[in-house]
Specification:
Blueprint: H1 7-94, H2 97-107, E1 113-121, E2 124-131, H3 134-146, E3 150-160, E4 174-182
Antiparallel strand pairs: 1-2, 2-4, 3-4
Length: 190
C-alpha cells in the first residue's frame, strides 16, 4: 500500500491561511494608519492656513490701530483749529463793535445834555450824565433806543442837583443813570 504523507500539506496550508489572515488583517490597519496620517496632514495644513490668516488679520488690526491714532490726532487738531478759527472770527466781528457803540452814544446826545461816566459789564452798559431838563434825558433815551447796537434802554434814576449850577428855566441840572444792553453787531432792522 502506498502511503501518502498529508501532514506537511496541512501545515503548509495552515501557515498559508495564517499568513493570508495576517496580511488581510494588516492591510486595513495599514490603510487606516495611512488615512489617519493623511487626515492629520490635511488638518495640520488647515491649522497652518488659519494661523497665517490670523497673523495677517492681527497685522492689519495693528495697521488700522495706527491709522485710528492718526485719525484721532487729526480730529483733535481739527477741533483746536476750529476753536481758534471761531475765536478769530468772533474777534474780527467784534473789533468794530466798540467803535460803533461809542459813535452811537455820542451821536444820540441831544443838546442840553452831557455824559459824565460810562461803565460796561459784559453786555450791560450804564450811562451817567447831566441834563438841563427832563426832555433832554427823554430825547437821549429815544435816540439810544433807535440805535442798532443798543437795546433795552431803561432809566434807572433821575434827580435834581441841588448843589450844582442853576439853569435859568428849570432852576437846577438833572443827574441821570440809564442802563441798556449792547451788542457788537447790529440787531435791529430798518
Amino acid at each position: 500500500m502506498i502511503k501518502i504523507n498529508l501532514l506537511p500539506y496541512r501545515n503548509e496550508r495552515k501557515t498559508e491561511k495564517i499568513i493570508r489572515f495576517a496580511i488581510a488583517s494588516a492591510i486595513p490597519i495599514v490603510l487606516l494608519i495611512l488615512v489617519m496620517i493623511a487626515v492629520w496632514g490635511f488638518n495640520k495644513s488647515q491649522i497652518n492656513a488659519v494661523e497665517n490668516q490670523i497673523a495677517q488679520i492681527n497685522s492689519q488690526i495693528e495697521a488700522c490701530a495706527l491709522q485710528m491714532k492718526e485719525i484721532d490726532n487729526y480730529k483733535i487738531k481739527k477741533e483746536v483749529l476750529t476753536k481758534k478759527m471761531d475765536v478769530i472770527t468772533s474777534l474780527t466781528k467784534g473789533k468794530d463793535g466798540p467803535v460803533h457803540l461809542l459813535d452811537e452814544l455820542s451821536t444820540a446826545i441831544p443838546g442840553n445834555l452831557w455824559l459824565t461816566a460810562i461803565r460796561q459789564k459784559g453786555l450791560l452798559l450804564e450811562i451817567e450824565g447831566k441834563a438841563i431838563d427832563y426832555i433832554a434825558v427823554s430825547n437821549y433815551m429815544i435816540n439810544l433806543d433807535k440805535s442798532l447796537y443798543i437795546s433795552d434802554v431803561d432809566l434807572k434814576t433821575i434827580s435834581s442837583d441841588s448843589g450844582g449850577p442853576k439853569d435859568a428855566k428849570s432852576g437846577s441840572l438833572k443827574s441821570f443813570v440809564i442802563t441798556c444792553k449792547t451788542t457788537n453787531t447790529p440787531e435791529k432792522t430798518g
